Amino acid sequence: MKLIEVSNCYKVYKNGTTAVADLNVTIDKGEFVFVIGSTGSGKSTFIKMLYREEKPTKGIVNVGGINVAKLRNSKVYKLRRKIGVVFQDFKLLPKLTVYENVAFALESLGMEARQIRPKVLKAIENVGLKEKTRNFPSQLSGGEQQRVAIARAIVNNPKLLICDEPTGNLDPDTSKEIMKILERISEELGTTVIMATHDRDIVNRMKKRVLIIENGVLVGDYLKGSYKGHESIKNSN
Q: Residue-wise over 119-131: b if at least 16 C-beta within 10 A, else e?
C-alpha cells in the first residue's frame, strides 16, 4: 500500500533556483529508502516537503492521504502527528532529561501524563537507553544523543520516520549502531523510513532501495539490493 505519492512535483525558490523538477516517486508502507545526491542536489528539499517544512511550487505531494501541497498552515500539525523526524544535530533540549526530552513530544500534543509514561519508556527501551532516562544530554555521547532523538521521533508510533543526515556527526562505529536501530524500527514496527545521507558505506552495506537526485531531478531509483554505487556519493564523507 502506498504511503507517499509524489507527482509532477516542482519546487522553485524566490531567487529563481529550481530545487526539484518534475519529481515522480511512490513509496510503500514499511519501506526503507535512502535518498542520496551531492550537496545542493535537491534531496533535502524533497525530504523537507514530506513533512511540510517546504511547500511544493507545483504538483502533488501526498503523505498518508494528506496532500501537502494544499495543506493550510493551520492544519500542518495533523501531518506532523503522523511523522517523526531525526536531524543531524539532534535538537535536544539541554535542560531536560532523556525522559523529559522524549515526553515533550507527547506533551505538546496535549496527551495526559498517564498515557505518556508507558509510551516514553517503551521508546527509550527501543533505542537501548533504559538505564539513562534521568541523564541530561550533556552527560551522553553523540551516539546516545541521537538515540534520544530517535526515541522522541518514534514515541507517537508514526507511520513515517524521516532522517536527514542522522549519522553526519557520528563516527563510523556509532553510525553502524544507529543504522541497526533504524533498521529494527522499520522491520519490527513496520515504520516507513526515508533517510537522506552522504555516507556511501552505509548505503552500500544496507542494500535498501535508493533514490538518486541530481540538479533537482530523480536520476535513479534502485530497488532493494540492486544499487551498486553511484558517482554522486563516491567522494562524499
A: bbbebbebbebee
pLDDT of 5 over the 90 cut: yes
Count of residues in the chain: 237
From residue 10, alpha-carbon distances to 7, 60, 215 in Å are 9, 9, 12
Q: What is the pTM of this model?
A: 0.91
Q: Could you tell me which residues are beta bridge partners of residue 212? A: 36, 220
CB within 8 Å of 14: residues ≥ 6 apart: none
Short-list 130, 159, 164, CA closest to 147:
130
Contact 77, 69 (CB under 8 A): no
pLDDT 10s digits, 140-178: 999 999 999 999 999 999 999 999 999 998 999 999 999
Smallest Cα–Cα separation from 128: which of 143, 114, 117? 143
- Residue carrying C-alpha cell 524533497: 46
185: closest CA among 129, 131, 127, 128?
127
Helix (H, G, I), strand (E, B) or coil at 127: coil
